[in-house]
């Protein structure tokens, strides 16, 4: 199946898959947000096992066009949620002059190294998160793999004194395919730190034999030049999908997806659509469920209150 499992899922040497799900209260569907899948499984094997484990239906996010198209033929409903950027590790010479200059600036701040999977480092990553821009804000949940297990790797850019300036965690989804999970930058780190870290990680993975590196999903975007496939031509944009994209744009004050897209787009990835799939139906209430379960509601409320307080202080000063 290679990369044709949902984002943040992984292949492992198992006899049977392990699914991790949460119940969506309004729609009643279980959302299978993570899983470990036997390396030998085909899409049919995976679908049959999902049907067996969740006979009343299920919801998946982060599905590729190929997997979403297969599920659609099986009767699943789907909507596009955004796009993921995939870098061809065998062709890393597409980087612009601006990016290579930033990488050189970042290289001067420290060195990139992989840190061991240990409890101490797990705690250190958690502590590092509190020093990022979003560290004190409500955290998003279930959208990426933040576990420290044998399928995840952690890379840092650190100073000679071992002070971390940037952190990336990467999940191995297949023999030649890897996927970005957490992207963490120290609040006051200099420009170029994350560019240096990303390019170093890409080079490390390429040298190890990986072919593709997913930069992860950016929700609510439709990049120019994104692959136009048979699935997009046959599936009309539904009310659900239109609502999702409009809601994302309305709440951009809370989650700057355009800034995330601009950062990832620096690395000249190929952009591919990403879907939510559900069976037997994809009810509108499931979108409200996801908005709450993932923590978007808490984050949006927190940012809204922060903005209101900021405007109040400005108005009081002006008065």
Quick overview:
This protein is of the alpha+beta class and 319 residues long.
Overall description:
There is one protein chain. This protein is of the alpha+beta class and 319 residues long. It has two domains: 10-84 and 218-318, no CATH class; 88-214, 3-Layer(aba) Sandwich (Aminopeptidase). It has ten helices and eleven strands. Helix 5 links the parallel strand 9 (177-185) and strand 10. Helix 3 crosses helix 5 (193-207). The longest helix has 23 residues, at 296-318. It is globular and about 55 Å long. The chain starts with 9 loop residues before the first strand and ends with a helix.
What is the alpha-carbon Rg in Å? 20 Å
Order of helices and strands: EEEHEHEHEHEEEHEHHHEHH
Inertia-based shape = globular
Question: Percent range for helical residues?
Answer: 25-40%
Domains, number = 2
* Percent of residues in β-strands: 25-35%
Structural class by helix and strand composition? alpha+beta
Biggest sheet overview: 8 strands, mixed
Which properties best describe this structure?
8-stranded mixed sheet; 319 residues; 2 domains; alpha+beta; 10 helices; Aminopeptidase; 3-stranded mixed sheet
């Amino acid at each position: 199946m290679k990369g044709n499992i949902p984002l943040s899922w992984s292949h492992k040497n198992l006899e049977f898959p392990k699914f991790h799900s949460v119940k969506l209260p309004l729609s009643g569907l279980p959302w299978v947000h993570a899983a470990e899948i036997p390396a030998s499984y085909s899409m049919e094997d995976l679908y049959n096992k999902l049907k067996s484990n969740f006979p009343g239906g299920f919801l998946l996010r982060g599905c590729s066009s190929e997997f979403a198209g297969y599920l659609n033929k099986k009767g699943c409903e789907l909507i596009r949620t955004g796009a993921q950027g995939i870098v061809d590790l065998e062709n890393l010479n597409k980087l612009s002059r601006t990016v290579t200059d930033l990488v050189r600036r970042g290289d001067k701040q420290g060195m990139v190294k992989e840190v061991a999977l240990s409890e101490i480092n797990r705690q250190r990553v958690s502590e590092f998160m509190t020093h990022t821009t979003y560290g004190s804000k409500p955290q998003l949940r279930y959208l990426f793999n933040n576990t420290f297990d044998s399928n995840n790797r952690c890379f840092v850019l650190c100073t000679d004194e071992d002070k971390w300036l940037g952190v990336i965690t990467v999940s191995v989804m297949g023999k030649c395919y890897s996927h970005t999970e957490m992207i963490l930058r120290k609040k006051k780190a200099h420009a170029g730190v994350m560019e240096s870290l990303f390019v170093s990680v890409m080079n490390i993975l390429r040298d190890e034999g990986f072919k593709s590196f997913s930069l992860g999903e950016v929700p609510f975007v439709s990049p120019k030049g994104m692959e136009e496939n048979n699935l997009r031509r046959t599936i009309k944009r539904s009310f659900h999908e239109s609502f999702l994209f409009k809601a994302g744009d309305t709440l951009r004050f809370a989650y700057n997806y355009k800034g995330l897209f601009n950062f990832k787009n620096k690395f000249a990835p190929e952009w591919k659509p990403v879907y939510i799939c559900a069976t037997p139906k994809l009810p509108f209430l499931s979108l409200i469920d996801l908005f709450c379960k993932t923590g978007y509601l808490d984050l949006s409320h927190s940012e809204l209150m922060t903005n209101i307080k900021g405007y109040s202080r400005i108005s009081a000063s002006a008065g």
